[in-house]
Specification:
alpha/beta; binds flavin mononucleotide; 183 residues; single chain; 24% strand; six-stranded mixed sheet; Rossmann fold
Length: 183
Amino acid sequence: MARALVIFASEEGQTARIARRVAEELHRAGVEVALRDLARHGTEARLAGYDGVVIGASVHFGHHDKAVARLVKEHLAILHTRHTAFFSVSLSAGGPSRDAAAARRYLEEFAAATGWKADLAASFAGAVRHSRYGFLRTLLVHLSLRRSGAPESGDHEYTDWAAVTSFAEAFARRLQAPKRALP
Ligand SMILES: Cc1cc2nc3c(=O)[nH]c(=O)nc-3n(C[C@H](O)[C@H](O)[C@H](O)COP(=O)(O)O)c2cc1C
């Protein structure tokens, strides 16, 4: 049975939800899955014991979480020998502030900054959750997201769950073929 690690960083919870769904779909496809939150497990997380690694991160102020970039850079050698997938979560990827060019640029900039091009990469629309923002974040969201057309109150989820399922299924299919021999 193939083994996969799904590791993510999430500030307001949507990337965590998507990572959980990816893990559930991989499990359904017969993959043995471990799900890890980078905030709890740190960049020293062990990647070596898996046939495949899925990494998820959300975008805030134009950038993915720095800890995710650090994780990738620290494990480049291992990632190059495993089946890998990356998913980016943002409001540019879908919803009222959709900006496909920006969503694509986030993926390209992450690949350029880390030197890692995942076998499979996707951008998923995230969520706006005013109920989870503190005072400062509410202010920042009003300043930064308002101009883009995102709602100014309430909680709104834009994630295309069918696309998340297809992504996980595609990765499960890749895991069936050997990439390179594990050391
Ligand atoms: C303060 C703040 C800044 C954000 N900046 C961006 C941005 O620059 N580009 C973008 O496409 N989405 C941006 N977003 C939207 C987030 O990527 C989206 O809400 C996502 O669902 C957050 O994922 P998380 O819940 O896993 O942290 C921002 C959201 C917040 C709250």
